[in-house]
Amino acid sequence: MTYRVFLVDDHGVFRSGVKAELAREAGIDVTGEAGTVADAVRGILTSGPDVVLLDVHMPGGGAVAVLRGVSDGAPRARLAKPPVFLALSVSDAAEDVIATIRAGARGYVTKTISGSELADAVRRVAEGDAVFSPRLAGFVLDSFTGRSPVPEALDPELDSLTPRELEVLRLLARGYTYREIAEDLFISIKTVETHASNVLRKTQQSNRNALTRWAHTRHLTD
Fold first, then answer.
1. What is the mean pLDDT of each run of 10 residues along the chain (222 residues)?
2. Can you tell me the distance from the alpha carbon of 37 to that of 113, in angstroms, rounded to the nearest whole number?
3. CB atoms inside a 10 Å sphere around CB 183
4. How far is CA 24 from CA 1, 11, 84, 118, in A?
């Protein structure tokens, strides 16, 4: 059986490398790719792949935004079968693993994985298994049993933001307009305005310029 794979990563050179590695593997066909959240959601809903290899950190909300966009658009796209998502990231931070799995990914592996190991992970998630790089599974288990390894936040203002508000904050700090944020996150401009207002209130910043400086000091735009 051949599994159709859609690759999402904002670095073109990395996508090329992954495609070259997977091309050597039997039963795996990379049928699509995207470098942005919006392109990824459109491409996945249009092509209906079996597995999506998904980078975690990208402009526009990253893996969580892609997962939400596909979930929201799936009923309209009438996919024969929803794709399975496998996160492929440089990050092995507990908070990234837990947030991505909670958003709907079936597995999470790091970019240190070999080509053959990645191919095996693709096959396994396509067949219904949950797949994690060594030690990452413990993060998920601890999270769902109430023993989360994520340390308590040392920044109460940042911790008060919801995941969506954090996405809006990052885009605001990168200079995106409200319209651009709405298009990237597949929400209305009015909703963006509401999130932006909440972010300003929760972070106790008086205006967008102050908010941008606040975000940069916390490396939220990296």
1. 95 94 94 95 95 90 89 82 93 82 90 92 95 75 55 60 87 91 90 92 87 81 62
2. 23
3. 16
4. 15, 21, 22, 12
Q: Is the Cβ–Cβ distance between 18 and 53 less than 8 Å? A: yes
Query: What gap in Å lies between CA 128 and CA 61, rounded to an integer?
Result: 26
Vertex 36 angle, CA 114 and 134, to 5° = 30
- In order of 26, 55, 132, the CA distances from 187 in angstroms are 40, 22, 31
Q: What pairs with residue 84 in β-bridges?
A: 51
Give the pLDDT confidence score for residue 150 in this predicted structure: 45
Backbone angle region of 61, left / alpha / beta, with phi > 0 → left and psi within -120 to 50 → alpha: left
Strands (E), 78-181: 84-89, 107-110, 131-132
Give the whole-angstrom CA distance, residue 6 versus residue 51: 6
> All domains of the chain, ordered by start, with CATH?
3-144 (3.40.50.2300), 156-217 (1.10.10.10)
Cβ distance 45 to 25 under 8 Å? no
For the chain, how big is the Rg over CA atoms in Å? 18
